[in-house]
Amino acid sequence: MLQQWNNILLHLRTNKITWLFIIAAVLLFTGIGSTPMYILDEARNAQAAREMMERNDWIVPTFNGELRAHKPPLHYYFMQLAYRTFGVNAFAARFFSAVFGWLTLWITWYFTRRFVSYGTAIWTVAVLLVSTHFLFEFRMSVPDPYLIFFITAGILCFYAYAQERKLKWLICSAVAAALATLAKGPVALALPGAVLVWWALSQKKYDLLFSWKMGLYVAVIAMVALPWYVIVHQATKGEFTRIFFFEHNFNRFGEPMEGHGGLFIMVPLFVLLGLLPVSVFTGELVKKVRSFHTNAFVRLSMYVTIVFIVFFSVSGTKLPNYPMPCYPFVAILLGYFINKVITGQNQVKQYPLWLLLALNVLLLAAGFVGLGLETATQPFRGWALLFIIPVITAAASWWYFKKEGLKKAMHVIIGGYSVFNLLFLAIGYPAVYKHNPVTKTLPLIPANEQVYSYKIYNAAYNFYLDKPIQMLDDAAAVNRLLTANPHAIIISRESHLPDLESVPYKLVAKERDLFETASTVLISGK
């Protein structure tokens, strides 16, 4: 037994990648149940999974008892599995998101090591591991973690098939592509498909595209993904198909939805900011990008990056999470560049670290000001001091870069940002978000009575109350309810109260929505 422990300790001392994956597990799982459900997408997805589970329905997703046609069901399935294991809570809703975050790191490392080099693979994992946005997304109960993993797996397995011509890789790629489609929809097929066709043509691998095995590839995707789409179409009499494909796919691409539009440049900025701190080396990477064409795997990563960024740049609706499936491939490019610098094949200037320092100083100031401007978080303004850690890290990395080179500077960045991400994501962020209006007003809502909403409410109320909320669409309906039941609680927004001037109501509570201009209100009869 003692010898076994000695062997384990020796392995840990000599194997860097083991430590990176241990750190990854800590950063992904620590405190994922501490942050209350409050972000709308999280709450809606978590509650929809619960409603499907309670009805024992594997086909039709609902929220608040009504059809939810925003997304396919894959993430609901995994959330249900976690609910049955851990109970219905925030930890369970986010558990498999964190699992797929760890798996995304692993599969990216595995194929990068296999087809490029061990050094590139390590630095690729490091790029993702210190990205606060990457970690944040994989700690949420949303479909993106599943989409990112299966798109990454599908593309990398297809590359392995192209290189080794083993049918197992083609089947794995097809299954992954199908599951990605069940996570997000047709975009999960269209964009990777465009990448792989472009890459195969650039490599003159025409036999990949014009082979009977491509028929098998398409058939496997259809067998795995198509049945659910057909069954849900029949079960909802075409309503899911109409809303999902036309409203939540074509319309989102054609025009901004829910105010999420913007200029072309926004999406590249999303990627650069999302992969901080290592993305500060992107300028230096671009200077050397021509040399990347010599490696087919790195070239594929370039094509993934270009296709995803360009597609979502021309899309009408733009959100920071949309281009995230390209993160592992941008990380491969950065890891490849960093490894070349460290092994003496490339050189890098020091201005990226100066840029990183300046950005971190701005984030520190923004965090301090932002928490101070928000009434509910003013007492917790001190949490902004967490951003001192990235400032110190950036300064120390520049100093070590000057003294000992990029390798030592990267070690400092990995260590400093790992500490920051742990403290920020597992302690600081939950501490601030516990002061949201849902958490504050829940004790005022009777547990055993029907709850109502006038026009709008936060979906987290469904998750915590575990019951449908009855919607009221006009002032007359509110008046009738409060006349019949003066003790009834109605959730709404302060901006809608002028509609109820003719209704005798009492303001029970008013809480400002965190980092938004709206305020949540609870009213009842006088």
Strand-helix topology:
Layout: H1 2-14, H2 16-29, H3 40-55, E1 62-63, E2 66-67, H4 74-86, H5 90-115, H6 118-129, H7 132-137, H8 144-164, H9 167-184, H10 187-202, H11 206-209, H12 212-235, H13 239-254, H14 266-274, H15 282-287, H16 296-314, H17 327-342, H18 351-373, H19 388-404, H20 406-433, H21 437-441, E3 451-454, H22 460-465, E4 469-472, H23 475-484, E5 489-493, E6 505-512, E7 519-525
Parallel strand pairs: 3-4, 3-5
Antiparallel strand pairs: 1-2, 5-7, 6-7
Helix pairs in contact: 2-5, 2-6, 3-4, 4-5, 5-6, 5-8, 6-17, 8-9, 8-10, 9-10, 9-12, 10-16, 14-16, 16-17, 18-19, 19-20
Pfam families: PMT
Protein name: Glycosyltransferase family 39 protein
InterPro entries: ArnT-like_N (IPR003342), LipidA_mod_glycosyltrf_83 (IPR050297)
